[in-house]
Automatic annotation (TrEMBL):
It comes from Maribacter confluentis. The lineage of its organism: Bacteria, Pseudomonadati, Bacteroidota, Flavobacteriia, Flavobacteriales. Transmembrane segments: none annotated. This is Crp/Fnr family transcriptional regulator. It comes from the Bacteria. Residues 31-118 form the Cyclic nucleotide-binding domain. InterPro entries: cNMP-bd_dom (IPR000595), cNMP-bd_dom_sf (IPR018490), RmlC-like_jellyroll (IPR014710). Pfam families: cNMP_binding.
Length: 195
């Protein structure tokens, strides 16, 4: 396994020594994931925290009517997991699917805790990641209850410019909480305003 992507990622937060890098090699495993392949399905317990080396994933919920609701996208240098299922060992209500052929590094919960205990630097890094995820989640909830669909779409474009050519309009519509038809209407209106 080529540990360089993880070493580079963690070193952006805190510099790692040789022992810490070597330990990463023992607790992370590499996995190649095909497009449309799931790394977590509803009803399973999330056993692994996943770091995306290459590719793109989506985490989504399927409601009682069979409609999909995208909650998160993850691309290179991003993390994806069902945190509730991972930490509490409960069956997940979510699915995580590859949108592209991907390469990921994964760590089991017990190995992640071992990483925290034996090398506290990682505990700090993951705490910051969790805090950032909570802040992002709060912003999204506030946006969903106080913004128009057009404002949510513009925010998506501004926040995730690297995703625009990698995911379908159907996926974007699901993320911002509108139908793909309504998203098309929003895009036409924005285009008209920019002329």
């Amino acid at each position: 396994m080529n540990i360089v992507p993880l070493k580079t990622y963690f070193s952006k937060h805190l510099l790692l020594d040789e022992m810490e890098v070597e330990f990463l090699e023992t607790v992370f495993t590499e996995k190649k994931v095909r497009r449309k392949q799931y790394i977590l399905q509803q009803g399973d317990v999330c056993q692994l925290n996943t770091f995306v080396v290459e590719g793109c994933f989506r985490m989504f919920l399927v409601d009682d009517q069979g409609k999909e609701h995208n909650l998160q996208f993850a691309i290179e240098n991003g993390w994806i997991l069902d945190m509730e299922s991972f930490y509490f060992g409960q069956p997940s209500r979510l699915n995580i699917e590859a949108i592209e052929h991907s390469i990921v590094y994964q760590i089991k919960k017990e190995d992640q805790f071992k990483l925290f205990t034996e090398y506290p630097k990682f505990n700090h890094i993951f705490r910051v990641l969790c805090e950032n995820a909570l802040i992002s989640s709060q912003k999204r909830v506030l946006q969903n209850i106080s913004s128009t669909a057009e404002e949510r779409y513009i925010e998506f474009l501004n926040r995730f410019p690297q995703l625009i050519n990698r995911i379908s309009n159907v996926q974007i519509a699901s993320y911002i909480g509108v139908t793909s038809e309504f998203l098309s209407k929003i895009r036409k209106e924005i285009s008209t305003k920019q002329r």
